[in-house]
Amino acid sequence: MLFSRLAVSLRTIPKLNRAHRWHHTSLTNELIENMDKKATWDRFYTENGSKGQFKNFEWFFGFHSVKDFILPILQTMSHSNSGPLNILDMGCGTSALGPCIYRTSPCAVKVICADISAVAVKLMEKHSNSTLVQPCNPSSDLAFLEMDCTQLRGYFVARSLDLILDKGTTDALVRSKEGQVKAGQIVKQCLQVLKPSGTLLQFSDEDPDARLVWLEREVRGAELPADVGVQEVGELRGVSYFCYQISPQTSERVSK
What is the distance between the alpha carbons of residues 214 and 216, in angstroms, rounded to a whole number? Predict the structure, then answer.
């Protein structure tokens, strides 16, 4: 499969704007303040998709930087599942994260790449159809869905997902003018649609001192209790990244 990717940290946006390296994209202060709006992302992906050859746009980093976090979790989950694992890449944009999981996971997976931007979803569908990516496991499936992540319960029934991936979605929301409330809603709804053995992984450049306090406050207000943890992903291009893991609190996890 031939494609190229552009990866960026949300912290670098103002610097890149000043250096005029975005070639007339929508990454401006206006975008930063309105990252919780559908119209913002439709405009962003329309402009990025108008340049000819398709490019996966990666917030933070690509799949290979976090595959050692994701694939072992899937392998462990597969031991207690008879069918494919249900995976949601929430706020996928045009990231290759979901397709890469579909392409490399030895265990069967049903990957849904979802985004609020219809433009991003159509770009991903078109690229996937044109490249005809083959799964590692013949029972795996890959789908794309236009979806408002604050309305997860309108798309998924309770306790139906094994893994939810959030690479930059929460970060975009909490940095926007009115997005913090929406980000909290998403965490609570994730806990409702995750299986008891499921997990939400948030990949972020936000320091644990801030993100853990926020996450613990949000899960305290959720209907279901949850455990919150963090691991360091590493430093890329001078920015430190973290993986925050939020899991429904079950009696088995408590006993551990």
Answer: 6
Tokens of 229: 């943890």
For each of the domains in the chain, give its residue range(s) and CATH number, in order of start. Answer: 35-43+57-248 (3.40.50.150)
CB-based contact 91:164 (threshold 8 Å): no
Token output for 24: 């007339």
Q: What are the tens digits of pLDDT across the range 25-84?
A: 445 677 778 888 899 999 989 988 777 788 899 989 999 999 999 999 999 999 988 899
Q: Is residue 215's pLDDT more than 90?
A: yes
Reported pTM: 0.87
Residue 135 to residues 106, 153, 173, 182, 234, Cα–Cα distance (Å): 9, 28, 32, 34, 28
The partner residues of 209 in beta bridges, in order of sequence, read none
CA dihedral of 98, 101, 107, 112, whole degrees rounded to 10: 0
Mean pLDDT score of the chain: 86
Q: How many CB atoms lie within 10 A of CB 193?
A: 20
